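Figure 6 in text form: structure in, sequence out.
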């Protein structure tokens, strides 16, 4: 019988803020009629204003699916063998 010890490498999860990464954004869909507000980047206020105006024009439409989109990146933590092979990001 062969016995081995495997040590898990540590990784860190965080927001991807690289130059080549899209900014993410916000959007909302009315659950009554499917209308969608224009998606925005990094500012949810215009989407909230759209939802309020949409309900103002359609008083029975009061529920929305709000989506906040972000991008994540997993990077090797200190001591992870992949840390030394990763090129520094700009
Ligand atoms: Zn609606």
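Output sequence:
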């Amino acid at each position: 019988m062969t016995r081995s010890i495997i040590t898990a490498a540590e990784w860190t999860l965080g927001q991807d803020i690289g130059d080549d990464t899209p900014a993410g954004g916000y959007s909302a869909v009315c659950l009554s009629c499917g209308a969608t507000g224009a998606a925005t980047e990094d500012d949810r206020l215009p989407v909230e204003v759209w939802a309020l105006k949409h309900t103002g024009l359609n008083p029975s439409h009061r529920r929305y699916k709000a989506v906040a989109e972000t991008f994540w990146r997993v990077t090797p933590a200190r001591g992870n063998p992949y840390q030394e092979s990763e090129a520094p990001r700009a």
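Caption detail: The chain has a mean pLDDT of 86.
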